[in-house]
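Interim report to the steering committee. The following record documents the input for tRNA pseudouridine synthase B (291 residues).
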Amino acid sequence: MSDGLVVVDKPGGLTSHDVVARVRRLAGTRKVGHAGTLDPMATGVLVLGTGRATRLLGHLMLTEKAYDATIRLGVSTVTDDAEGDVLTVAPVDGIDEEQVREALARFVGDIEQVPTAVSAVKVDGKRSYQRVREGEEVALEARPVTIHELTVGAVRRSSGEGPASVDVDVALRCSSGTYVRAIARDLGAALGVGGHLTALRRTAVGPYRLPDARTLDQLAEQFSVMPLADAARAAFPSYDLDAEQAQAVRYGRPLPLELDILTAVFAPDGEFLALYAPRDGAARAVAVFVG
């Protein structure tokens, strides 16, 4: 079993924990963790770590994520997505594309967002979604998130069975902690017709993108990981040490380096050694990955 990252293209219908269980079997180890979950309905980039890389997951700078999504206007649901029971149905005859684009433009930037009620946010020690499933009404507090970019694609009217609706394709880059379902809900509320998410595909988590990802079927045919050194160089600023400095790192000693932020340090042969950060006038070890 190799230490490294596995960037999975998660299929719909599986929980993130289901994917972890699959990768544990494929990797032949229980030492597999994930860096943030995806809802069962969602597909796309899910970052896992195996072996020593599980210790790296908590330090990864996965502060920006990207998604492709489809929002349905005219119908709201309990879960703010297609998996929940319908709450309201409203006519969308008066909704046009210009209104949709103008309303979505107001979501770009630093905003206050109320997480969806069926989120994993804890309320008095219990997950919000658990309280909802038990029949409780949950009112979560708004929290700051950032929508760096939101691009509106096709805006089209439904032509199939069921209530008339308007579907809106969007692509967005946002801060970690943003709920795309909540954007669908809030867009519907702003237009007075309700809304929910019908499709969600995560296209990037930090530096790891869909071209880096492999399906579970591909991993079953040939299991491999992104080596720890490659994963660290992709996610952090890097610093290449000389032999004497590398030896000091193996003992977790401070280094006389001027670092600005958390930095991955490497031995002369390219081996990833540790994460160091500036503190008290020196570079000090945050996590050492070698003995």
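The longest strand covers residues 143-157. The committee is asked to note this result when reviewing the revised timeline.
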